[in-house]
Amino acid sequence: MMSSGYPTRRKKMIKIHPVILVALVFFVILCTGSLSRRLLYHPARLDPARRAYISRQLPHVTELTLPAGKKVSLHGWLIRKDLGTLPTVLYFGGNAEEVSYNIEAFNRHLDANVLLMNYRGYGLSTGSPNEKDLKADSEQIYDYLIKEMNVDPERIIVCGRSLGTGIAVHLAVMQQIRRLVLISPYDSIERVAARSFPRILVRFFLTDRYRAIDEAARVTAKTLIFIAGNDRVIPPENSRALTQALVCETEVVQIDRAHHNNLTEFDEYREALSRFTIGEVL
């Protein structure tokens, strides 16, 4: 067989050292985790004027700072009415919520003490938010109520809104909470995201999945659930999926006219929450 007279080209294979390959994979994982958290969490800082207003106009509201691990502190407020005889509501907010803006409404409509702490990176709280740490922080805040403020565990009502419902469900399971309030809850953040994005992308990019549905069957608390009929952020279908997974005693209040951001402005919400707080619901 005759030679063509041209030199044969050999394909060059790029060899990557195993250590470099592992480092590249680890880097990609870190980048995707950071990106997904930036999409999920939208930390709102505390306006200095707002802080000054609370201090000046609401003397019965106490500002608190709690340590949470190395170099991290959580900042928030306690609406103190009577820690000895009234229930105490422990509130966990949404993913873009600076919790101080709930103080006036809770103070006006609830005959209860209320503890509102901003998540890591929110308000004046330091650190960066992630599912593992936010859930751990919730347990530490609960312990603070019992051990440092001598609040009777049977008088604690855990309340979560939107993102905070997954944290509230977790705390209810870990501490056998007696009463639980879920405002716009979800089965999992993963399932909510999959309604808007391709599932394969959600599985790859989403780091904090908040699978509340996995813990639902272990909730023993009497539970009050609020669903907004026009919710475009957490569709009612996701809220109902979690509700159906609960085996505890539940009360569902669906407000068809409400959407995600105005659900708490309706009289039906305020009246049901007030009755539940003093033990008249369920």
Q: Mean pLDDT, as a whole number? A: 90
Largest sheet: 8 strands, mixed
CATH architecture descriptor: 3-Layer(aba) Sandwich
Which CATH C-level class is it? Alpha Beta
Query: How would you classify the helix and strand content by structural class?
Result: alpha/beta
Residues in helix, %: 25-40%
Number of domains: 1
Number of strand elements: 8
Name the poorly predicted regions. Answer: 1-8, 19-33
Strand order of the largest sheet: 1-2-4-3-5-6-7-8
Query: How many angstroms does the end-to-end distance come to?
Result: 92 Å
- In DSSP terms (H or I, runs of 4 or more residues), the helix count works out at 9
SSE blueprint and pairings:
Elements: H1 18-40, H2 48-57, E1 61-67, E2 73-79, E3 88-92, H3 103-109, E4 113-117, H4 131-147, E5 156-161, H5 163-175, E6 179-183, H6 189-194, H7 199-205, E7 222-228, H8 236-245, E8 250-255, H9 267-277
Parallel strand pairs: 3-4, 3-5, 5-6, 6-7, 7-8
Antiparallel strand pairs: 1-2, 2-4
Helix pairs in contact: 4-5
In words, what does this structure look like?
With 282 residues, this protein is α/β, with parallel strands linked by helices. The chain has a single domain, classed as Alpha/Beta hydrolase fold, catalytic domain (Rossmann fold). It has nine helices and eight strands. An eight-stranded mixed β-sheet has the order 1-2-4-3-5-6-7-8, sandwiched between helices. The longest helix has 23 residues. It is globular, with a radius of gyration of 23 Å. The termini are far apart. The N terminus is likely disordered.
